[in-house]
Amino acid sequence: MLKKFLPALLGAVILLTGIFSATASAAENKILIAYFSWSGKTEKVAQIIQRDTGGTLFKIQPANPYPTEYKACSDRASNEVATGARPAISNRVADMDSYDVVFVGFPIWWYNAPMIIDTFLESYDFSGKTVVPFCTSGGSLIGVSMDKIRLHCPDSNVVDGLTANRSSEVAPWVKKLGYAK
Ligand SMILES: Cc1cc2nc3c(=O)[nH]c(=O)nc-3n(C[C@H](O)[C@H](O)[C@H](O)COP(=O)(O)O)c2cc1C
User: Fold this and answer.
1) Positive or negative torsion for Cα 94, 101, 145, 127
2) I need a labelling partner for 91 at 20 to 30 A (CA). Which of 5, 6, 22, 52 fits?
3) Which of the 8 DSSP states describes residue 88?
4) The whole model's pTM is what?
């Protein structure tokens, strides 16, 4: 009797194990999606990631908002790079310790992540967490920013980031990382 049902039983166990391990990643990880966005493009990507992961959105707010006019914003950004500035952030993630995975999103400014991302990364302890960078840009890729993010997060699992200029690439990327709910 048992002999007859053993293969079916074994099959069911294997199937259930497969189902649970496939969903474990999104369910077991508490996910934060922190982002800075000046003109809204990175914010849209952050919202797609939030929708697909069920994570918590956190918009990084500069204490001194950037000018809405491009030239003035660009001048300030370039000055911040030249001086190694750490522009202050007016809000704070209340329970950073509780997150396992932190997406960090930003526009590329002067070929790199804006200096306010340095401020953000220096404001918390990311050790033991998975850090998932993403950016939008006018064409520059995320590579240069990855170097500085890795320097700020030496004890984190920093995943290769996505230059998310095509929004259709976001959902498949999140799924491939195993964070889709
Ligand atoms: C100050 C400033 C500097 C920029 N520097 C670059 C750059 O070096 N390379 C690039 O491809 N795009 C650059 N851009 C374009 C932005 O990266 C791009 O428009 C981005 O998608 C905007 O994202 P946001 O809408 O979330 O702010 C720059 C934009 C600004 C305002």
Assistant:
1) positive
2) 52
3) -
4) 0.89
pLDDT 10s digits, 91-126: 999 999 999 999 999 999 999 999 999 999 999 999
Strand partners, 58: 34
Alpha carbons 103 and 110: distance in angstroms, whole number = 21
Q: Which residue intervals of the chain are DSSP H helices?
A: 2-28, 41-53, 70-83, 115-122, 143-152, 170-177
**% of residues, the chain, pLDDT over 90:** 85
Show the ligand 1 pocket: residues with CB < 6 angstroms.
Answer: 37-43, 70, 73-74, 77, 107-111, 136-140
Protein residue whose Cα sits closest to atom 5 of ligand 1 = 109
CA distances from 172 to 6, 143, 175 (A): 38, 20, 5
CA distances from 120 to 14, 15, 34, 175 (A): 43, 42, 9, 26
| Ligand 1, atom 6: closest residue by C-alpha | 109
Both tokens of residue 122?
């220096």
> What domains does the chain contain, in order, with CATH numbers?
31-177 (3.40.50.360)
DSSP type of residue 98: G
Cα(first)–Cα(last) distance of the chain, in Å? 40
